[in-house]
Sequence to fold (270 residues):
Amino acid sequence: MLQQLFFGYYAFAIIILSLLVVTRSNPVHSVMWMLLLFFHIAGLYLFLNAEFIAAIQVIVYAGAILVLFLFVVLLLNLREELSLRQVAGSWPSAFFIVAGLFVVVTAALGSYVPGPVGAYSIAAVRSETHVKALGKLLYTEYLFPFEIASLVLLVAVVGAVVLAKRKLRS
Amino acid sequence: MVPLHWYLTLSAAVFMIGMFGFLTRRNIIIMFMSVELMLNAVNISLVSFSHYLQDLRGHVLVFFVITVAAAEAAIGLAIIISLFRNKQTAHVDEMNEMKG
Fold:
């Protein structure tokens, strides 16, 4: 009962906060609501026994990505943007597309059959600790994707610098 | 015990809200934040699948999704800055040079 109550609170807060993120006209307010949203999602991850993912969610998403968003929002002078029309005129059709897709996805959930369970039960992960189990998996079985991820980050760093710098001389 | 369907429905709802924001908002920064919202919805479903199927591979996938989201945020915001430098606006209806 307590678990359902916890989940209900988190689900309700996440949905309300994501609606707030999407509907605020001032981007700074949107970023602030998104910060709260990410903390709630991290709480949901803790509820699912994924403490390392929860920590990463707070550090990377709330700490790095949102600060980057906030910097850009504050860097650009958006004062006169706020007077423009914020929402596309065809929003009812977008609403019907999204609602229809939601109905399709939730209807498909009914026919989902869970596959066989893996080797990482809650007791096994708890005896080994989550970070250690995840690290073992990441550095053995997923070593090659891990290297590719580092390459993706390198490309992102170089690309961001190249795209955002001013031309030195034209 | 909370059933898996609740998590998946929550994930679908957050994804649809993000998609609605991407389709309707005209401020490029908020459109970008809607994309992040969709990525987070996928992460919720991956972590819940991982918990209910007792497998850690979903967590590894979430790790990579967060990496790609960080790279995408850096590149996308750099593009937004250079667009703003050229056009002095963040309104996507103004950016119609490539309209056919």
